[in-house]
Amino acid sequence: AKPMADAMWMVAPPIPEGRAFHFEKEPPFHYRKRDWAGPMYLAMLGNTGVLNCYGTPPFDRKGALSVRDPRYRGEVELRGGGGGAELAGWTPGSASVTLRDVEAGTLLVYNMNFDEGWQATVEIGGARQPAPVRDEQIRVAVPLPAGATRVDLRYRPPRLAAGVLLAFLAAAALGGLCWRERAARRKR
């Protein structure tokens, strides 16, 4: 056990449990002794999204705001109407927002980078219906009807089905070529 313990020299700091998900510009936690790798795993353990994380391609379409940004109004905010919103659940590809006293024309803004793959479902009086998702300052936004009580957002990469179908056809074609080659060898 001692040689293994000595080999694990990257020691994580204490990470508080039960933190609400939020974004920060830089990683909030760091290894006591670190190596070349950024501490993104520690941020995930601390339920924190990092805007300047390693591996992110340099693109200008970053809409999510850090909690320290003066424009930050929470992970969800309502604009242009009354009511309240609370982030009820979160995963990397989905979010659930509980709403109360929403007026017609209110816009729900979710603090997440906008991409065309976001889809929304709005619940009104127990009935669920699809809702449009739009780009609001490069963040995800959903126009809300009066009386909406919940919004479920989910992300599906655009053209995912076409990519899966193309991969399946390529695998089938490769399998067919292999089968044909084996059949030709057997005849020889």
Task: Describe the sheet with the most strands.
Answer: 5 strands, antiparallel
Helix fraction, binned, reads 10-25%
Q: Which value, in Å, is the CA radius of gyration?
A: 23 Å
Counting H and I runs of at least 4 residues, what is the number of helices? 3
User: SSE order in H/E notation?
Assistant: HEHEEEEEEEEEEH
Termini gap: 59 Å
Number of E-type strands: 11
User: What is the residue-averaged pLDDT?
Assistant: 88
Strand content: 25-35%
The assigned structural class equals alpha+beta
Strand order of the largest sheet: 4-5-11-7-8
General shape: flat
Put the structure in a nutshell.
The protein has helices spanning 2-7, 40-45, 160-187; strands at residues 22-24, 48-50, 76-79, 84-91, 94-100, 106-113, 118-124, 127-131, 134-136, 139-144, 148-155.
Please specify the SSE layout and strand pairing.
Layout: H1 2-7, E1 22-24, H2 40-45, E2 48-50, E3 76-79, E4 84-91, E5 94-100, E6 106-113, E7 118-124, E8 127-131, E9 134-136, E10 139-144, E11 148-155, H3 160-187
Parallel strand pairs: 1-2
Antiparallel strand pairs: 3-6, 4-5, 5-11, 6-10, 7-8, 7-11, 9-10
